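Input sequence (222 aa), recorded before submission:
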Amino acid sequence: ISPFFFSGKIPDSNLAGNGSNPAGNGSNLAGNGSNPAGNGSNPMGNASNPMGNGSNPARNGSNPAGNGSNPAGNGSNPAGNGSDPMGNGSNPAGNGSDPMGSGSNPMGNGPNPARNGSNPMGNGSNLAGNGSNAGRNGSNPMGNGSNPAGNGSNPGRNGSNPMGNGSNPMGNGSNPGRNGSNPAGNGSNPAGNGSDPKGSGSNPTRNGSNPTRNGSNLPGNE
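Predicted structure, token format:
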């Protein structure tokens, strides 16, 4: 039987609570971790891992590696509305999105991960709960991707936060709002009633349109 059960002392390696464990270019916050505690974020190298009350070890933490991080409801990888970015791509779950290259893939009403968090790729960061930069409704852009959380970063509920070549709109639209669209760099992914322009083309949706370079009008929206 291991003496651990009789010593009454818990080993001190990388506590989840008040310690931090950086790996590669990422950081692993624990509970009320090193950088921010509670609702803060911890950017390291090219990636940041903000989570509900902390990143890695803790209750709502994430586990970053290299330039990507793994946000998850209460664990790592994705859970519920979290996302799991790896390298330059992310694997969203629930309402998250999976951005690859210069574009983003919105799901449900939000781009990257969940209602209140976002998860970019490559040099991006992982917001969760009350994210790092803006907070519950804020966003945390990193590198070439933007992460709107909750009700959007720039405009708000129906706004979007474009960064570099890709943008992640939240709510019902990006730039214009409920029925608008959000073009960014090489492509944007609006959610709800927005439009999804790619390069010089557009993908109009029910209530909004994004005309192409040569111009087009959708029926009912002239």
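Checked by second reader. Residues 9-222 have pLDDT under 50 and may be disordered.
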